[in-house]
Amino acid sequence: MEAKEETQVKTTMKKALLIFNCLVLSIGNCGGPLIMRLYFIHGGKRVWLSAWLETGGWPIILIPIALSYFHRRATDPTTRLFYMKPPLFIAAATIGVLTGLDDYLYAYGVARLPVSTSALIIATQLAFTAGFAFLLVKQKFTSYSINAVVLLTVGAGVLAMHTGSDKPAHESSREYILGFIMTLVAAALYGLILPLVELTYKKSRQEMNYTLVMEIQMVMCLLATVFCTVGMLINKDFQAIPREARNFELGEVKYYVVLVWSAIIWQCFFLGAIGVIFSASSLLSGILISALLPATEILSVIFFQEKFQAEKGVALGLSLWGFVSYFYGEMKENKKKKLAAPETSMAPSNNPAGNA
C-alpha cells in the first residue's frame, strides 16, 4: 500500500513539474522574440549582442541550484554543490556551443523579419525535431504525428513562396531573404539540439534529477555565452553599447532595461525547454514551442502592428491543424495504453519462478 502511495506521489510531482516547465517555456517562447524585436525596431543593430542576451542570463540558474544545495545539506552535510560529472559536463558544453551558433542565426533572422514571419518559420523546427528524435532517441511515430510534421513543413513552404510581401521598407530584398534562410537554419539546428539533450539524459551514467537538469542548463548557456562573447569582441559590440544606448529611441535607461529583461526572459525559454524534455520528451518540447505560435502571432500584431497577409493566415491554419493532429494522436495512443495496461497485468506470468 505504501509503495502504491509513493508511486502516486511521484506521478503527481512529475505532472506538476511538467506543468511548471510548460508555463516557464510559454513565458520565454512568447516573450523572447517580442523583446528581441523591440530592441531592433527602436534602433538596436547588434546581432551578436542579441544572440549573447539569449543565454547571457545563465547566472540566474545559480540561485535555484544554491537553494537545492542548502536544502540537501540540511539532511546530508557531505553533499556536493554540483552533481555533474566530467562526461556529462563535456556533453552539455558541446551542446552549448551549438546553442551559441543557433542563437546567432536566430538573432540575425529576427533583426530582419517581422516577429509573425519569423515565428511561422520557427514552427518548422517541429519537423526537424521529429526527424532527429527518430534518428537519435528512436522516437516512435504515428500517422497523426507524421501528418503534423507534413502540415508544418507545407506551412513554411507557403511563406517561402511569398517572401518579401511583408519586407520592412528600409530593408533590401537580399537582406530579407538572407534573414529568412538564417531563421530556417536556426530552426533546423535547434531541432537537432532538443533530441541531443534527450540523448544526453538517456546516455548519462548519472541518475537524472531536476537539480542536474538545471546544472546542464547552466553549462549549456555558459558555453553559448562564451561563443557569442567571442563574436561580440570581434565585432566590437562592447564598445558600441554605450553609443547605441544614447541613440536608442525609447531612451538610454529603457535600453538597458530591455537588455536585462531580454536575458531573463530567454532563460525562461531554455530552462522550460530542457525541463519539458526531462519531464516528457524532446518531441513534446518541440511541439509546445510550435504550439505557442498563435500567441506569438497575436502579440506581434497587437504590439508592433505587423501586417497579417493571407499567406500568413494559410500558414497559421496549417500549423494549428498540425498541432491538433498531433495532440489528438497522443490522446488516442494514451487511451490505447490505458486499455492495454489491465490486460498486461492480468496476463499469466511465463516466469517459472512466479509459480513458486
UniProtKB/TrEMBL annotation:
<keyword id="KW-1133">Transmembrane helix</keyword>
<feature type="transmembrane region" description="Helical">
    <location>
        <begin position="113"/>
        <end position="137"/>
    </location>
</feature>
<protein>
    <recommendedName>
        <fullName>Probable purine permease</fullName>
    </recommendedName>
</protein>
<feature type="transmembrane region" description="Helical">
    <location>
        <begin position="144"/>
        <end position="164"/>
    </location>
</feature>
<feature type="transmembrane region" description="Helical">
    <location>
        <begin position="47"/>
        <end position="70"/>
    </location>
</feature>
<feature type="transmembrane region" description="Helical">
    <location>
        <begin position="283"/>
        <end position="304"/>
    </location>
</feature>
<keyword id="KW-0472">Membrane</keyword>
<dbReference type="GO" id="GO:0005345">
    <property type="term" value="F:purine nucleobase transmembrane transporter activity"/>
</dbReference>
<keyword id="KW-0812">Transmembrane</keyword>
<dbReference type="InterPro" id="IPR030182">
    <property type="entry name" value="PUP_plant"/>
</dbReference>
<feature type="transmembrane region" description="Helical">
    <location>
        <begin position="310"/>
        <end position="329"/>
    </location>
</feature>
<feature type="transmembrane region" description="Helical">
    <location>
        <begin position="209"/>
        <end position="235"/>
    </location>
</feature>
<feature type="transmembrane region" description="Helical">
    <location>
        <begin position="82"/>
        <end position="101"/>
    </location>
</feature>
<dbReference type="GO" id="GO:0016020">
    <property type="term" value="C:membrane"/>
</dbReference>
<dbReference type="GO" id="GO:0015211">
    <property type="term" value="F:purine nucleoside transmembrane transporter activity"/>
</dbReference>
<dbReference type="InterPro" id="IPR037185">
    <property type="entry name" value="EmrE-like"/>
</dbReference>
<dbReference type="Pfam" id="PF16913">
    <property type="entry name" value="PUNUT"/>
</dbReference>
<feature type="transmembrane region" description="Helical">
    <location>
        <begin position="176"/>
        <end position="197"/>
    </location>
</feature>
<keyword id="KW-0813">Transport</keyword>
<feature type="transmembrane region" description="Helical">
    <location>
        <begin position="16"/>
        <end position="41"/>
    </location>
</feature>
<feature type="transmembrane region" description="Helical">
    <location>
        <begin position="255"/>
        <end position="278"/>
    </location>
</feature>
<comment type="similarity">
    <text>Belongs to the purine permeases (TC 2.A.7.14) family.</text>
</comment>
